[in-house]
Amino acid sequence: MSLERKRKVWAEVEAGLGSSGRIKILKYLIEHPNTQFTRYRLRRPTGLSTEEVSRNIQILVKLGWVKEFPHEPKTYQINLDNEIVRIISDFFKNLRKI
Where in the sequence is the domain holding 22, given as residue range(s)? Predict the structure, then answer.
């Protein structure tokens, strides 16, 4: 992997994991990979306000880590087609074994 690619990957990881809110959302979505959630349905299990969920989910969508579906209301699902997300998913699953 080129140095430039490594820098881009690390920048993406820093952006994606750069807040406890995004980590909580990712963890919950990874635990339920086949389910789509509204922002409202992500509030309670993550402990985040609607504003926090909205702000963080948009960053995750922009990174391609979370899929956004144009239903009304919009729904969200983890994007396990993304290589970085698969690695993070494996990391989270391994942490549960400790």
Answer: 3-96
Looking at residue 23, what is its pLDDT? Answer: 97
Backbone angles phi, psi at 76, to 5 degrees: -135, 145
- Looking at 6-10, 22-26, 59-63, 80-84, which range is the least confident one? 6-10
Q: How far apart are CA 68 and CA 87, in angstroms?
A: 20
How far is Cα 40 from Cα 70, in angstroms, rounded to an integer?
Answer: 15
CATH number for the domain harbouring residue 54 = 1.10.10.10
pTM of whole model > 0.90? yes
Number of structural domains found in the chain: 1
